[in-house]
Structure formats: structure tokens, C-alpha cells
Request: fold
Amino acid sequence: MRQQRLLNPTLRDVPGDAEAASHQLMLRAGLIRQLSSGIYSYLPLGLKALQHIQTIVREEMDRAGAQEMLMPALHPAELWKASGRWDVYGPELMRLEDRNGREFALGATHEEVITTLVKDEIHSYKKLPVTLYQIQTKYRDERRPRFGLLRGREFLMKDAYSFDRSTSGLDASYQAMFDAYVNIFTRCGLQFRAVEADSGAIGGTDTHEFMALADVGEDTIVHCPSCQYAANLEKATGSITNTRNSHTDLATTQPVKVHTPGVTSIKQLSQFLHIEPQHIIKSVAIQANSTPVIVLVRGDLDINEIKLKQVLGVEDIVMLSEAEIAGLGSIAGFIGPIGLSTVRLLADTSIQGLQNAVVGANEVDYHLQHVDVERDLGELNYVDVRNVGQGENCIHCGHELSFAKGIEVGHVFKLGTKYSESLGASFTDENGLSEPMIMGCYGIGVSRVLAAVIEQHQDERGIIWPNAIAPYAIHLLTVQLKDEAQLKLSEELYQTLTRAGFSVLWDDREERPGVKFNDADLLGFPLRITVGKKAGEHVVECKERRSGASYELTVEQLLPHCQSLLN
Reply:
């Protein structure tokens, strides 16, 4: 491709509303342009990189035995109502009506559609297992689209669905997809980790997220440097060993009421009593299915709402109002577990064994000191409902856990019979009995992978593309187009390299050399070949974008070098 004909509107300045490095660089390098909040057009270079990612995805999915198809993006509401997700998916589902008032949704995911299709087309165990996938645009009404392609309203996704006759078959399909994902993200040049995860609105069990490590990531990864354990914060578990608070001023054996005027937060209480937050028990009043519950957690830790919902077996929880808290016999800001005999107590494992702890006294401006959990709170139901905190240990090997930020680029689920039972997808086994199909679901955010790659592969000058997904492998620069020797050699190299199978962008613009070099660094293709003052000697300069290595080669040496470096 000749660059003077390329639609590539680069920007010199960083757009003010672009926070993430990938968003800034994709705008500056002319890969994307925003149409509306969270909605982008892909310009030629951006589309080329996206297509290379799709090629890798297709190759690995096909190698794993999956078959590609394409499903509609417009879904009739009755499918989602049949699965029960029309009412529970939430406001992210884009809903609309046709001219006849019939309800539809723009596809956020395709479990209902694929299950209905397979239900109608596969009836015998002889046709199982089968795994089907598509690469298609998805739509979600994100509350706060941000970071460019990392969180948008319209995005490209690969979604696959497996159908098996047994749980062991699902295990095999799941492992095949897991392995394919490892290959895909490795080939794309991503640094990533597969972590245990929560299934969310899609449902199912035994799920893993594939997280690209990046500081801009909105997800927190908890992992063990000593063993292979890794999970996102929503799913992670850790081990805490509580030690006795040995502060000399608190040495006593019985709870004591202490006046704490206007002290309603953990931070205020810690400062007022000169104790660490881990020696305070936080009492959180919530309502689950119309039942009030007091959740107890150590003061330096936060309740994990997803874990709490799972423990309580509810889809939603709400905080109690001040009036509702008063109805329990307590007061907002001073809630404590002692004396609330009529309300259910749920204790996080973080408070187990705590001694000399501080709790609310259920009285305005008062707390209780010197509380011994085992002695003073009686029999408690201990569960894990917290976010893992700094200093916790791995439950598998005991090593201290580490934390990192990540971008979710893939997610694999074992759905089981959640959708096949609700939508009637069954098969007849060899004994003539009808059984529900056992499903798996596997997604990759293809456009998000593109952004994640740039987030990891860039420097102060621009993008540094991995070879496999670079829009072009070679950036050919002609320093002086008016120099006949340079123009002639550039034309010859462009034809030779292109015929050899390399994708080449030839900068044949009438621009100053400095502009060309800066643009080449911004676009970040793996190899830059500069035809300059030594063109008459058939010598060119090569520069590798990743390593920064610069050297001269003769024209005769160039092709073998490109084959070695880029293939």
C-alpha cells in the first residue's frame, strides 16, 4: 500500500478525553474514530490489525474442532423471556420494538439463539458433541463507556457454544476451548493469566477469565507467586490468621462501653481509639429477599457483593435505611452484633478468632471495646463474603498473595443445563431416552484484544506491534522522492517484498524525513526500511521497532533478513 493513498489521519496531540494509552494511541495513529460515546469506526490500519486477530481466532477455533457460523444480532424478546434473562439481565441489554410493537433486543450474547437453533436441528446423541462459534458485533448499553475499545457499547466478539451429552464431555470441550484460548492470546503477543471467575448474568459453574495484565485494567487479579492459583477479586479467597490486639490500654477481659461522639466510620474510629482497622468489626445492615441481615467483616476489609448474594441465594441485596436499622433496635453508624438477638448475623471468616475487638454498641455515640468474638458473639455462621485483602495467604500453599490489574479479554463457562432445560434443547440417547444437552459457553472480546495488545506494547513514541497482528510487517520509507536513485530502489523493493509475501506500507508522501520517521514510530510496524543517500550503492537502513536495533544491509541481504526476522 502506498501511504499517500492511505486513509490514515494521524494526530500530533493526545485527545483530551482519552485516558488509556491504547485509546490515545489508536486515535493518534489513525486506527479508529469515535462516532458516539462507546461507538467507533475502524479505519484501514485498525481494521487490518483486527482482521489479523480474527484470523488467529479462527485458526485456533477450527483446530480445536469448532465450526464457524453466523447468527442474527436482532433477538425476539420471547427467547430471552423463555430463559428468564429478559428481566434479570439489566439495563445493559438494548431493547427496542418494531413497528408492530413486538419487543426485540440487540444481541449482547447469544445463548438463547444458539440453544434454540440446536434444539431444532439436533435430536440424536449421534450428532453430539458439537461446538459452534461466530465472530459478530455485540451491543451493550454500558453505563459509562470509557478507555476506547476496552469498554464500549458496540464491540466485536467471538462467542462459541459447546453441546455435549455428559458432564465428562463438557469437561473435554471446556479444556479444548481453554487450550485454544491460551494459544490465541499467546499468538497475539499478550501477557495474560487465566483466573477463576464468577459467571455473572450468563450463569453456570467452573468459569475462568483470561486477563491481560495492564495497569489500566478495571479488574483486580489475586494470584499466588508460589503456586498456580489465580482468581479475580470477585472470586478470590484467602486465609487470615488474626492476632490478639496487645495494646496496653485495652488489656481487659470483658466488653466495655466507650463514648465515641460523632464517630461513625472505620477511619474515624481507628483514629479516635488509636487502634488499627483490623481490630474493628464492621457491621453492615442489608436486606435480602425482605429479610434483614447483619454482615460482620473485619474493619480493614470490604464485603464482596457477588459472594454475599451467592451465600444468601438472592439476586439482589439493598442497604437498610436509617429507619429500618432503628426498627432492629440499633442506630446507623453504631451498629453492633451484641444485643441484636432478633436479626440474622452472618460473619465473614476474617473476624474468626478476633480478640480485643471493637464493635458498635447499638447506641448513639457509643462503641464496645475488648470484644472476644468466640466468647461474646456466641455461635456464628462463618462464610467467605469479603474481598481478599493485602497480607492474606494462599489457601493452597500458604504463600502471601499478590495483586495485579487486568483487562478481561476472554471468558469460558460451564453452563450445564441452564439454557437447554429452559429452552427445551434435548437429545435422544442410545436407549431412546430424552436428556437435556449439557452446554459450555466461550467468549473472546476481539476488539478488546486489539486495545489490550496496544496497552501492553507501546512506548513514548507510539505503538510496538507484535509481528502476528501488525497491520503491515514492513514500513518502507523513501527519504527524498525527487532523488531518482531513491525512488527507483524504493519501487523495486516494494515490488520484491510484496511478491515475497510481506505486507508493506510504502511512505511515498512528499513530507520531511522527520515527519516520516515520527509517523513510522507512531504506527509501530515491526521493521522500518529506509531508502536514503546510499540508494545508489544499493544499501538501505533497517530499524527494528521493538528492540530499536538499527543497521545497514545491501539489497541482496534484505530479503533473507526479512524472512528470518518476520517469519
Q: What stands out?
A: The domain at 3-234+404-454 is CATH 3.30.930.10 (BirA Bifunctional Protein; domain 2). The longest strand covers residues 402-416. The chain has three domains: 3-234+404-454, 248-383, 472-566. Confidence is low (pLDDT under 50) at residues 247-251.
